[in-house]
Amino acid sequence: MNNSENDNLDLNLLNGLFSKAKDPAQRFETINNFSRRLMPEWFLPMLNDTARNTYYTKMLEHSVKDKVVIDLGSGTGMWSIEALARGAKFVYVVEKNPILIQYLEFIFKDHPVKVLGKAFSELKASDFDHGQPQALVHEIFSNTGLGEGVITAFQKVSELFPDHSLTLFPRYFWFEARVFKQKPFELSETEKIHLKDKADAYYELIHSLGVRDWGSLKGINFSDKEVINLMFLDLNKIEQNKSYDLKAIPIDIAPGHVHHVYLSFKFSTELEGPYFDTLFEENHWGGFIVEFYISTAMKAGRKYLKMKLNDNQLFDHPRLEDTP
Ligand SMILES: C[S@@+](CC[C@H](N)C(=O)[O-])C[C@H]1O[C@@H](n2cnc3c(N)ncnc32)[C@H](O)[C@@H]1O
């Protein structure tokens, strides 16, 4: 969406939105219709993600009445609308995308909402001048869970509200891996060329972007796989100036085989759940796969797959090492 399209927002369409969206039965549908016309493309599948909609709605249902709420990374404003519908007293809407800022300002102009149209890093304590926030809802998870900057965002939250008692929706975050040894592989000519350059193993991220239908990957039995926890975050305790990292993934190397590592994340408001687990939710965008072709020249035995976090959010290329 470029700036000239931005200037041509259909105000009639916008006009109808908020009143319709107040009806819970119509909320998702209305925003969905609207977004088909105006929103960035990737919003549509997200809005149709019924598992996500149900989970967030349940989280907010009985928790925001009479509260001052922050919606961090508001997007369509869906969780702000939900919070207001559940009796929130006031909502601070934070969003950096220019077209979304314009849209959010429009739909919330007659409501107890302040739109903070800026990046999280630009927020100041003085922006929150309509009452002390008591709850915060967010969904700043990219397909990698961390790629949209959830760690840096909560470093900012802890700077803005030291010793705060914000209730976070969600609060806990787990990043997990499951390792599969697949069948022996037949290399294509191109793969043979690649493999010649790498005597030990050839590996690459085959899905660096979210896999839609992730979680409905038919025929894969995840239930008997060991769950390897690579990271656990209590977002209420994120420390400023700390570099976060992922634990290594132990891999039992089978020479001549393809290995798959499924990486996914889950989150919750309570330590014991209920979780929103991107591995198992149908039609969710979360997760990615690292695929390895292990050369027959490599010795069997344990290796460790390591991925570093760059600036607490971007994944550097995975590599296999001998020690954890
Ligand atoms: C996954 S979407 C959330 C969607 C929203 N919950 C909804 O249902 O429409 C994340 C949103 O956060 C915004 N965002 C990401 N990083 C941001 C940042 N650093 N500052 C402000 N907004 C940000 C994105 O522009 C995007 O709209």
Topology of this structure?
Elements lengths: L2 H5 L3 H11 L2 H15 L4 H5 L2 H12 L6 E5 L5 H8 L4 E5 L3 H10 L5 E4 L18 E4 L11 H11 L6 E3 L2 E13 L4 H9 L3 E5 L22 E7 L14 E5 L3 E12 L7 E2 L10 E7 L6 E6 L2 E2 L3 E2 L3 E3 L3
The structure holds S-adenosylmethionine (SAM).
The site of S-adenosylmethionine has 16 residues, from helix 6.
Descriptive tags:
324 residues, alpha/beta, Rossmann fold, Hnrnp arginine n-methyltransferase1, six-stranded antiparallel sheet, five-stranded parallel sheet, 9 helices, elongated, disordered N terminus, binds S-adenosylmethionine
Can you describe what's shown?
- This protein has 9 helices and 16 strands.
- It has 2 domains: 3-139, Rossmann fold, CATH 3.40.50; 173-321, Distorted Sandwich (Hnrnp arginine n-methyltransferase1), CATH 2.70.160.
- The chain is elongated.
- The termini are far apart.
- 35% of the residues are buried.
- The protein is of the alpha/beta class.
- 27% of the residues lie in helices and 26% in strands.
- S-adenosylmethionine (SAM) is lined by residues 73, 75-76, 78-79, 94-97, 100, 119-120, 139-140, 148-149.
